Structures are given as C-alpha cells and as structure tokens.
Amino acid sequence: MLSIEPEIETLPEHPVERIAGDPSRGLLLVCEHASNAVPEDLARLGVAEPEFSRHIAYDIGAAEVTRRLAARLGVPAVLTRFSRLIIDPNRGRLDPTLVMRLSDGAIVPGNARIDAAGIAERIRRFYVPFDRAVDEAVAEAEAAGVRPMFVTMHSFTPFWRTIARPWQVGVLYDRDAGLSRLLIEALKADPAGLCVGDNQPYGGGLPGDTIDRHATARGLPNALVEIRQDLIGGPEGQEEWAQRFARILAPMLRPPA
Predict the structure, then answer these.
(1) How many other C-beta atoms lie within 10 A of the C-beta of residue 92?
(2) 1 falls in which pLDDT band (50, 70, 90)?
(3) What are the beta bridge partners of residue 30?
(4) What is the pLDDT of residue 105?
(5) Residue 39: what are its φ and ψ, rounded to 5°?
(6) Closest to 222 (Cα-Cα) out of 210, 233, 231, 232
(7) Which residue from 136, 211, 158, 207 is spatially nearest to 180, judged by alpha carbons?
(8) CB proximity list for 231: less than 8 A, separation 6 or greater
C-alpha cells in the first residue's frame, strides 16, 4: 500500500542532493523526480497542498529506493530536492513540458503565465545545478578510470486515467539498449514472477532528457528504471526493490576500491 507524505516538503538551500559513493565501481544513480519541495517564494505555485502527494509533483518512492540502492552498492547518486512542477530536469530545455501548466488534470497557476524570462530563471536556479551535479559525478568516475553505467530511477502510477497498468517494473531505453536488455532479462528471471515492461509504461528516447544529454552524449551505457508506485510507497517495498536491483547490478560492478 502507498504511504506518502501528506504535506509538501521544505526545500533545502541547495536544490540537489549528492550521495557519496565509490566512483570507481562504475555506476551512477540519478533520481530526477525525488522531491515534492517548492521554496516559499514560489508560494506552492498556487497549487493545492493535496496535489503535492500525487505523482504530478514527484515520483513516489523513487528517492528512497535510490538512496537504499546507493547505500547497498556503495555507489554515488544524484537526486533533486525540488518538485517537477517547478521545472522538470528530465526534459530538454526546448521541450514544451519543461514547465507544466497543466498536469494530469491539475492546473498549475504559478506556471500559467510564465514567460521566457521566468523559465530562464528556473533553469538557472534549479535545472543548471542538477546538470552540474550530474556532470561532476560522471567526471569523478572518469577520473577514477571508469566510464560509469548511468541508471535513472523513476516510479509510475498503477493507473493512467482509468486504465490499469499491469507492469510492476519497466526498463526504458533509446539507441543503446544493451544495459536495459540485461536488466529486463534479469527482472524477468526474478523468482517473484514479475511483469516487466520492455520500454513500458513509456517509450524511451526523449530528446534532451537526462539520459540523452548526460549518458547518450558521452556514449555511456544507460537505462531508465520505472517501478510501480503502489509497490514502493512505504519502507518495506522500498527495501525490497533496492535489494532486488542490488542483486542484479552488483555482479556488473568493479570491486570496491
């Protein structure tokens, strides 16, 4: 069952969380929609507080799975500390959904009349620090002598509109499907008999998204993981899925330094 925060979080001073790890192990975890936080000066974007417990504000459960997985494997991770309603770092700068005015039926008044200057300010304040943190993490791995696998962690709703989604987990990919195929086959072989989405519940390959600009541009092996939100809404499910991905990924990593 889902167990989610009933209230909006408070945005810390810096918009990005970096988890220390051993960059020489060859894996970087990224969670773009980790938080539902909005700073006070943006006045919750005019959105009613209950909406911040929904997927429109953040990927429920994804942040804690990422933190637990990073701790189990001893690898670095980069997570956002701001809501995707402010700006979505998993979009290209020219993507029309970079700043959402309407999200799954919820109007975002604070975005309704935002102009180019307003978007540029959010890019400066939130998007650029996230990009820099990811670039720094990749550079640290390369300085340690490895080209890291690049895995981004997300979650998806059990229903879209009124349609049930059967997958418990999905792995998305674009041009480089090598790592994704390994993850898909490993998940299909799991004793739990998982229903695994192959480029589902969404198709991979969004121009300008995190993987495109940070992994594909560098030729890094990559995969985007989507876990169904009702399975990771609480600590038990978060730990279960962190353990599952740790078992799959651990054999692909270099020994700890």
Answers:
(1) 16
(2) very low
(3) 78, 152
(4) 66
(5) -65, 155
(6) 210
(7) 211
(8) 61, 168, 237, 240, 241
Which ranges of the chain does DSSP label H, i.e. alpha helix?
Answer: 62-73, 109-112, 116-122, 128-143, 178-188, 210-214, 235-249
Residue with token string 């399975």: 231
Type of residue numbered 73: L
pTM of the complete model beyond 0.90: yes
167 in Cβ contact with 195 (< 8 Å): yes
CA–CA dist 35, 96 (Å, integer):
21
Would you call 91 helix, strand, or coil by DSSP?
A: coil
Cβ atoms within 10 Å, residue 97 = 14
Decide if 44 contacts 38 (C-beta within 8 A).
Answer: yes
Task: Report whether the peptide linkage leading into residue 148 is cis, meaning its omega lies within 30 degrees of zero.
Answer: no
CA distance 35 to 28: 19
Return the SS3 of 78: strand
Question: CA angle, 148 as apex, 83 and 141 as ends, to 5°?
Answer: 90
Exposure on the CB side of residue 73, measured as CA atoms within 13 A: 30
User: Measured on CA atoms in the order 107, 108, 109, 112, is the torsion positive or negative?
Assistant: negative
Residues 156, 165 contacting (CB under 8 angstroms): yes
What would the two tokens of residue 156 be?
Answer: 């998806």
Mean pLDDT of 43-56: 90
Residue 104 has pLDDT above 80, yes or no: no
Structure tokens, 32: 């773009």
CA distances from 15 to 19, 84, 86, 127 (A): 13, 12, 11, 9
For residue 147 the two structure tokens come to 């080209």
CA 184 – CA 195 distance, rounded (Å): 10
Place of tokens 């991770």: 77
